[in-house]
Write a structure and sequence with these properties.
Shape: globular
Number of strands: 22
Largest sheet: 6 strands, mixed, barrel
Structural class: alpha+beta
């Protein structure tokens, strides 16, 4: 028994030494084989982390299965439909009161306020929420009670990060912070400390304030507008369809007067209220105003890429392992001649395969860990490998390990080990077969690689188009900032403007309204929606936008304030005017408009006042006092940005003390509109690079298999006079055919996907054929570089080495 155990230990030691010897003898090949599987696994792990995070949003809440978000479909009379994930103040309490199945409601609203502590002032985003916010949602409180944290109208809850920022520690319950609200300083007492919300929460907050304070300061019982995300906690098993019918009944009853007034005013739109499960809202970006909504197509694309990369990496690993085992035919023959048993060879090959698989998996985990910070930056996440410690995922990777190890060792263990030793010693064990499966694999992985190359090229071109297209105005050296001290005070805005003009390095100063305004507009007997901007006389000059007809506002025409407007080209097209100067706008969606009409005095050339994802809409410029002011636009002189900004901040602080000078450059703000596209450009490029690398490894494996099988054929051809170039072309042509077939498969699929993606942009590049040709050419060059060295080496080999056993 003891001797048998020693014999087994000796054999295992011998197997291990043989495996190490084999790895050392084929260093480059082993590194390529292991690195291909490792990179594929690491890439898969990262993408699984992303997909798991995306699908886990809001599931951590104790009441997740019964939490719903109130949604609204606003259907216009012409049939257009806008979906909103927000409501007004009134819907939450009204539906809760009349519908028994609704146990709780809570409203949430984010707003930037000025926070003061001592002499320091900060701009902070605060979250207004109802009293039951911390009992409806499962956001843990470090201190304070969930049911009473927001009970007092002047109580607030800070996250632990905010507590450390303002006080240096989290033991701050009972301390006070002062907020500027509607021009008044309001003290709030800290009643609780919450943990920072997890990253997979749609609702993010730093400071939570009682919604009833906002409700008191700005009461509103209107039903016909939307602004606040509203959430309901329903009874378990509640019938959503029945609740929806009851909501419609409540709406028709309580909003009847508003609905009637809307119809009298010519508004024939319809509001349809609905409930959507909170856990589904993150991956549904069809609703405007939903916090943290994400486009699900990206999660689907990444998940698909992860599966493909994993399949390709594993099959390539198997192929390359088989290719290596075929080179060991003589070793097998000698071992069998000197008495080696087949079951010993099977154990050896399977053991080597599992050892290599284990190394690949271990390296994959290390690669994933080191790559995680870069991936987090690309995906704008805070992922951790601990996410993979899910039982199902861990079990899946363990099963994958055994499948990969067994599949890679199966062929050499059962097939190669069964070769006739005499034939193998005479190189007659011929590895026959057309290897259709390997060819199909190469086609499949290069089709995926070409698809990703095409996607990368189009994403790069579209991103460059978005960031480099002429916007119709000059966004360079244009500074924007907001002050709420003079929102409805034009004389004070003019005073500020005069002081800013005096700052050295300032070229022009203008101001406009804060926020977005617009709605139903009537002109030329046509009714349509338009966007409104309240501007001063210097607005167009500060923007460097062009006036293509008529004149701009001027102090020389005092009546312009109430009697005149400017319109853009899109407005002219919507009405159908040929000569709009002197025409009238009959109705604007402004308070107290009545029967007043205004004259068109000028036409502004269309410019992109929003991102290029949005089509330029009809726009109307006015100086009507109904719209609030507060936003400054200041153009700085070229080359004097730094000194001008410092002087501006000094002037701002002198005129508006206790308010931070928070500014943004227009060009930077415009680039932020395409942050998502920039991130996905990097992610798709990363995926394409990984896929190409793994595809090349697979192609290399197929090349080695193919050339090993044709070694004697090549020898015979050379004896009969074939040149190295002729043989190289002959072998390479087979691989060119595979890449060409992959190209034919990838082009229609990529055309369909890219075309659908481009439809999400109002302004986009053309689907040019040469970009597809470029991708195909690039894939072909990569394939030729991959197989080239191996093919040339075989083509240059001495024919006598291949034919000496004949």
């Amino acid at each position: 028994m003891l001797s048998c155990l020693k014999r087994q230990q000796f054999m295992l030691k011998n197997y291990f030494k043989t495996a190490l010897r084999h790895f050392k003898r084929n260093k480059i090949f082993s590194v390529i084989n292991i690195s291909g599987l490792s990179i594929g696994l690491a890439c898969c792990m990262l993408i699984i982390l992303y997909a798991k995070d995306e699908t886990s949003f809001d599931r951590f809440h104790k009441n997740a299965d019964n939490l719903y978000q109130l949604t609204c479909d606003r259907i216009e009379k012409e049939g257009t439909d806008e979906k909103f994930g927000i409501a007004a103040m009134v819907q939450g309490p009204a539906f809760k009161k009349e519908i028994p199945e609704i146990r709780e409601f809570t409203r949430v609203n984010n707003k930037v306020l000025v926070v003061k502590k001592g002499d320091a002032v900060f701009n902070e985003q605060v979250t207004w929420a109802d009293d039951n916010f911390f009992s409806v949602f499962s956001f843990p409180l470090i201190s304070g009670g969930a049911n009473r944290a927001l009970a007092d109208m002047h109580s607030i809850v800070l996250t632990d990060e905010m507590a450390v920022k303002y006080f240096g520690n989290t033991d701050v319950v009972g301390k006070t912070l002062t907020f500027q609200i509607n021009g008044n300083s309001e003290p709030f007492v800290i009643s609780g400390i919450a943990k920072k919300p997890p990253q997979n929460s749609s609702i993010q907050f730093n400071i939570v304030m009682p919604f009833k304070f906002l409700e008191k300061e700005n009461p509103d019982n209107g039903w016909m507008w939307v602004s606040y995300p509203t959430y309901f906690l329903l009874d378990p098993g509640a019938n959503i369809r029945a609740i929806k019918a009851k909501m419609e009944q409540v709406y028709q009853t309580q909003a009847k007067n508003e609905i009637d007034l809307n119809h009298l005013a010519g508004y024939d739109n319809k509001f349809v209220w609905d409930l959507k499960p909170l856990i589904q809202m993150h991956l549904d970006n069809s609703f405007q105003g939903t916090p943290g909504a994400s486009n699900p197509i990206y999660a689907y694309i990444l998940s698909g890429i992860a599966i493909f990369i994993l399949i390709i990496a594993c099959i390539n690993f198997v192929n390359l392992t088989i290719a290596q085992s075929l080179k060991r035919a003589k070793e097998i023959g000698i071992r069998k001649v000197i008495g080696g048993l087949r079951n010993q060879l099977i154990r050896q090959f399977l053991g080597e395969s599992f050892l290599v698989s284990f190394l690949a998996f271990a390296i994959a985990i290390i690669l994933a860990q080191f790559s995680l910070p870069i991936f987090n930056d690309l995906a704008n996440k805070q992922l951790s490998l601990s996410y993979l410690l899910d039982f199902k995922l861990a079990a899946g990777f363990i099963i994958l390990f055994f499948i990969t190890g067994f599949a890679a060792g199966f062929y050499p263990a059962l097939v190669v080990s069964g070769f006739n030793p005499v034939q193998t010693l005479y190189n007659r064990s011929a590895h026959q077969g057309k290897n259709f499966l390997s060819g199909v694999l190469v086609i499949f992985q290069f089709a995926l690689a070409i698809f990703l190359i095409i996607a990368t090229i189009f994403i790069y071109n579209q991103f460059n188009f978005l960031t480099k297209t002429n916007l119709g105005y000059n966004d360079r050296n244009l500074v924007q900032f907001v002050t709420d001290k003079a929102v409805m005070n034009k004389p004070l805005m003019d005073q500020y403007k005069s002081e800013f003009f005096k700052v050295p390095g300032v070229e022009n100063v203008s101001y406009k309204n804060v926020g977005k305004f617009g709605g139903k507009t009537m002109a030329g007997s046509k009714e349509f929606n338009a966007d409104y901007e309240r501007i001063d006389d210097d607005y167009l000059a500060a923007l460097q936008a062009k006036l293509i007809a008529g004149r701009s506002f001027s102090k020389g025409f005092p009546a312009d304030i109430t009697n005149s407007v400017l319109i853009n080209e899109a407005f002219v097209q919507a009405v159908g005017w040929k000569n709009p100067i002197g025409k009238t706008v009959d109705y604007m969606n402004l308070p107290g408009w009545g029967s007043r009409k205004v004259n068109v005095i000028g036409v502004v050339k269309d410019y992109h006042y929003e991102s290029l994802k949005e089509k330029i809409r009809p726009q109307l410029f006015t100086q009507d006092a109904a719209l609030p002011l507060g936003q400054f636009l200041i153009r700085l002189k070229e080359g004097r940005t730094a000194t001008a900004l410092a002087a501006l901040e000094k002037t701002y602080s002198k005129m508006i003390p206790n308010h931070p000078f928070d500014y943004v450059f227009s060009d930077e703000m415009n680039k932020r509109n395409y942050d998502a596209e920039h991130k996905w450009k990097q992610i798709i490029t990363f995926s394409a690079t990984i896929t190409i690398f793994i595809s090349c490894i697979g192609l290399l494996g197929l090349t080695i298999l193919s050339t090993e099988k044709r070694r004697k054929e090549i020898g015979i051809r050379k004896v009969l006079g074939a040149t190295t170039n002729h043989i190289t072309q002959l072998i390479a042509l087979n691989f060119i055919k595979l890449v060409f077939i992959a190209f034919l498969i990838a082009v229609p699929i990529s055309w369909f996907v890219i075309n659908k993606w481009l439809q999400s942009f109002a302004y986009r590049i053309e689907m040019s054929w040469y970009l597809f040709a470029l991708a195909g050419t690039l894939a072909l060059v990569i394939a030729l570089l991959t197989v080239g060295s191996q093919v040339v080496r075989i083509a240059r080999s001495q024919p006598v080495k291949a034919l000496k056993t004949e």
